[in-house]
Amino acid sequence: MELKISDNLTLKQKLDHLNTLIQDWYPDYVGFAIAMLDNDNNLYSVYRSQGYGVKFPDFIEAIHKSSRLSTLRETRSPDIIDDMTCHLPSIKHIHQTLIRKSCLSSMATPIYNKNDEFVGIMFINARIPYFFRQNLNFFNTISLIASLFINDDLNVKRSFHNIIKTILLISHHKDPETQNHLKRVAEYSRLIALYLGKRKLCNGHFIDAVYHYADMHDIGKYMIPDEILFSTNIYTPEERQIMNEHPELGYQLILKTLKQWGGITDDNLKIILNIIRHHHERFDGDGFPLKLKGEDIPLEARIVTVADVTDALLSHRPYKKPWPLSDVIKYLQEGSGKQFDPLCVEAITKNMAKASQIQNQYPDHLTDNAIKSTG
């Protein structure tokens, strides 16, 4: 079997193909998993081959608490456990599970991005002891290939994101303050998604995608006439109706852009378009544009809805001062199950201290013509 990878495959499809190739060559190989690093030095799973087992944790908290993982990060070299049975009885629960599955040796390799920054770890398991000592060069190559796939996926996201950022920068020339609003919404969205990821409600790829694409949610606003978009007066019913068209306008704009660009995979495309089109839906079904209800609203949109409103409440606007944290929490909780997904509300309210840190890290630079409808 040859390694033939098409550019239009998703990251999962590429890694699945790589996993199948290894299985064909090495019967004692079990599978591999890949975890990426978040801002708090924790690892979250972005891929797990079918043979690796469902017991691999979706979230590994605080990498610095694990001597193995911190050493791996510092040495930049593979870390190999030749025989897991030698670690009993102090061995961790995850390794005990692997031993029961006849996975007796393990190899972990660091993943770096194009800027030589540590971004994750690849874990590989085998059924026999000392497997990786005997096949080290091959599996070093495999980890390099997997790293290239990971980096390629990141680069595609960043390339498309840079295109959209250019559009946003041009659109925001009258409103520089909004740039930090978008950055904060992305950070809050990742905060919420990570919380849900810990509860196995989404995977690492989803978390990454939501973070990269959350700040595109309002791109349709910049197809709204300036006299409405930048108005500081209360909207008339007619003006509000025009403003409420921005999710559908943004959806159509990005759909056309993506068709012309052609560099984004279907799974990313779906997340981007769902965020743009559905971030004003309400959990009770009274939102727009499609009046979706509950879990019929895509999870990515439910996350961005809470992140967007949270930032609007915490931020200064020409027509209001920032709300105290206690009032923001109260508002979100009162809207839980009505305007907002209860789990997303739980996620942000339990992490409000981190949300406050994000707010301070990316402060507003106010102008007199800030968009009143942000949020």
From TrEMBL:
SUPFAM superfamilies: GAF domain-like, HD-domain/PDEase-like
PROSITE patterns recorded: HD_GYP (PS51832)
Highest taxon of the lineage: Bacteria
Domain HD-GYP: residue ranges: 156-364
CDD domains assigned: HDc
Pfam families per record: HD_5
Database matches in PANTHER family: CYCLIC DI-GMP PHOSPHODIESTERASE TM_0186, CYCLIC DI-GMP PHOSPHODIESTERASE TM_0186-RELATED
Protein name: HD domain-containing protein
Organism: Photobacterium leiognathi
